Amino acid sequence: MNQSIIKYVIGKVMTIVGALMLLPIVTGIIYQEKEAFAYVIVGAASFLAGQLLSRKKPKNTMFYLKEGCVVTALTWILISIIGAIPFVLTGEIPNFIDAMFETSSGFTTTGSSILKNVEALSHTSLIWRSFTHWVGGMGVLVFLLAVIPMSGGSNINLMKAESPGPSVGKLAPKIRNSASILYKIYLGMTVLEIVLLLIAKMPLFDTLCISFGSAGTGGFGVRNDSCGSYTGLQQWITGIFCALFGVNFNFYYYILDREPKKSFKMEEVRTYFCIIFASTFLIFFNILPRFNTVESALRASFFQVSSIITTTGFSSVDFNLWPSFSKVILVALMFVGACAGSTGGGYKVSRLVIAIKTVIKEANSYIHPKSVKKIKMDGECVEHDVLRSINVYTITYLVIFVVSVLLVSIEGKDLVTTFTAVAATYNNIGPGLAAVGPSANFADLSYFSKIVLIFDMLSGRLELFPMLILFHPAVLKDVFLKKKALKATK
Amino acid sequence: MGIFSKDDPSEVKPLNIIIVGCGKVGRTLIAQLSKEGNDITIIDENAQKISDVTNEYDIMGIVGNGASYSLQKEAGIDDTDLLIAVTDSDELNLLCCTIATRIGKCSAIARVRNPEYSTELNYLRDRLGLAMIINPEMEAALEVARILYLPSALEVNSFAHGEAQMIKFKVDESSKLVGKAIYSVAKETKNLLFTTVFRDGQAIIPNGNFVFAAGDMVSFVTSRHYGKNALQSLGIPTFHVRDCMIIGGGKAAYYLAQQLIGENISVKIIERDEERCEQLSELLPNAIIINGDGTDAELLKEEGIETADAFVPLTGIDEENILLTLHAKQVSKAKIVTKINRFAFQDVINNLDLGSIVYPRIITSEAIIAYARAKRASMDSNIETLYHMYDDKVEAIEFRIGKPSPATGTPLKNLRLRGHVMVSFINRNGRIIFPTGEDTIEVGDTVMIVTTHTGFSDIVDILA
């Protein structure tokens, strides 16, 4: 294990996190809130410590997959801790576990909150909370790759570990260019949403927070009723942008690259929109009797479908009160998740499409036992390795899920609460149903459950394996014991 | 703010390069060209190779047939500056390049190895509109032949279309050079210039006060006809190779035999495959073709390895070549040149003290990289030749001077050169000038630079 490069990257990440705290600091100055001091202290400390850690560029810049995974997992744990400190210092979330839950929920773009009264928070902390979504959406390491020239080609392993989806392709030959293309698209779309929401007369502060939340598919609101009190137009804009941020970013790249044909060939994106339309349609008819106008029913159903499938987790109404049929659709959507290569979480549409195709193939093989058929996606054969990794992913996904539900159930909440609490955090959505529904929050869970859910959020965001690898005995030994071994040989 | 600083190595725009074929040469090219900051896309039909290489280097990989129009489109042929085809198949390479030059506006380089095309390479290149056709086996054979003409040298590289040579030799303990400074050696010799000394893993561009020690590897440049005399004047005994034993009858062996027979050196080729032996005897009526196992010590003895002047193992297996070399060193005094195809375990090879080694793969990639660098720099300046020496620690580059620049027209002593740079010779209309401080670089010259810096792409790079 190349420890010096791990240290170097972590140092760079700390520097960046320190720099990112400028946004809440500026906000604090504008609103003249004393909470800004906490961010000044933590931001400066993180910046300096980061500079110190990364001041010397390591000689050996070789990066293998395991280093990529370990760096990614450590980075995400670390930024959740650093980001949580200001909440504790300002006294807004006095307990550290609570603060860490809130921050990792932010960075992993989950949007589950332990705050009973969001509106009581200072503007400084509110914008930091939402900003963590934006940073976490595309990934802090991808950001690192975009802004810092890293020599050595093996950095692809960083991107692989952090980017969602079964396979990671580059858009440009150099990883730095690929990363900056992604961030440019991301930034461009966020700015577009901000402009549109401002035109729709949303206050600037809300606009920023909501845009950050939907861009990262996070879901922290700034009001207690999430998006309920916004106007119809504002909800439409937010809902549509949520759906757009859940699309594979290659889709936009191809369009910008003047190859729209390739964009529309993407099976994943087509399936994704089909699922959105079908679910909206079903829920719309199911909840129509409860609404006064067709428009409001359509808006509520679309907003909720888009918000849940992209794993954003905003809510415009309390869907906990909807009929079971609609609720079950929403829970199913929680597991489907957004497209690979987007900012959303969940199981990912592309995996689902391939998994269903394998099932169909298996069924066919009962009829023609000797038939040979390759599974195709976007007109190209899916490699056997990809199929295998999807199967393994599915099993791991289920095992972690079941174990988490079991662990959370210890404290004795009802089944729906327990089940959806895990589903909502594991898939990075935000609100669940019943006691963790859109009008409630995660505050009443025990600290043990919160720690389990923090782990779920992180492993869900990083697609399981980076987090699991971190606890692999060989890696633990490497990370913590390597230094001694070196000294012994000297 | 440290984190947003850019430390781009050069402000020159990177080239978009497509490489077709991810074999030994392909990988060498990727390593070097991506280190120099170019945007590289690799195409190969083997998905595993692509995934390996994209994990190791910062490049994009595409799986498929590089000669397919739609695949080249997908790889972005429209914005590509250079396509390099180095697959196993000559015909596929030519097809890739032909298609690329038709649909894109890029230059194309193909590797063509089949001896049947070897006499037609220039015709093919011009007719198909390619920038370069490269034949590594032939180049390797030429390099072996150059070394055999000067058997006391470890390495002989040619510059200025063969008018000048860079010769590498090792200073023995008994050498008269030991303990002497360059300026005093220079009094006794003429027409040569010491360019590089390699000592304890360090490459040094020496000045006049440098003192030689035993074990130094020394390179100097001299003109073509003076090589033998130069070595003699340095107190290095030279002899004339009259017969040569070649193990393995592959393409390189054929080219080498052809060269050597042309110089009246008698050639003996030992080849395992009977059919190939018959082909060779048809192609090379003046050579002695032995059908037998070249790794059989008895056979080698029978065929006179102990008395041979030169011994060249050219089999396709590096391990065999190395073992044959070590064996030959023990049983004979022959001059040995070893061909090594792969480049793994370079440190081990260095420690074995094999003597002269040629790397066909490096010869190929050097020629291509020289072209890519020149293309990246500007249209008026060009790199004629490029050699990497001493484990890539030293580059010897020959620039063609196409236009006036700050480096031209001024006596060298008035130019502010960078450290670790030496102007080794100036080739003016085929006349080799070993420059003194009074000489100037003029438009139309070619100038050879030896430097421990890497990545020079224009003559002005030598200026501080």
List the helices and strands and how they pair.
The complex is a heterodimer of chains A (490) and B (464).
Chain A: H1 3-20, H2 22-30, H3 36-53, H4 65-90, H5 96-107, H6 123-138, H7 140-147, H8 156-162, H9 175-199, H10 204-215, H11 232-245, H12 249-256, H13 260-265, H14 267-287, H15 294-309, H16 324-336, H17 349-367, E1 376-377, E2 380-381, H18 384-409, H19 415-426, H20 447-461, H21 465-470, H22 473-489
Antiparallel strand pairs in A: 1-2
Helix pairs in contact in A: 1-3, 1-4, 2-3, 2-6, 3-4, 4-5, 4-8, 5-6, 5-20, 6-10, 7-9, 9-10, 9-11, 10-11, 11-15, 14-15, 14-16, 15-16, 18-19, 18-20, 19-20
Chain B: E1 16-20, H1 24-35, E2 39-44, H2 47-56, E3 60-63, H3 69-74, E4 82-85, H4 90-103, E5 107-111, H5 121-128, E6 132-134, H6 136-149, E7 155-159, E8 164-170, H7 182-188, E9 192-199, E10 202-204, E11 217-223, H8 227-233, E12 243-247, H9 251-262, E13 266-271, H10 274-283, E14 288-291, H11 297-302, E15 310-313, H12 318-331, E16 335-339, H13 346-352, E17 356-358, H14 360-377, E18 382-389, E19 394-400, E20 421-428, E21 431-433, E22 446-451
Parallel strand pairs in B: 1-2, 1-4, 2-3, 4-5, 5-6, 12-13, 12-15, 13-14, 15-16, 16-17
Antiparallel strand pairs in B: 7-8, 8-11, 9-10, 9-11, 18-19, 19-22, 20-21, 20-22
Helix pairs in contact in B: 1-14, 6-9, 6-14
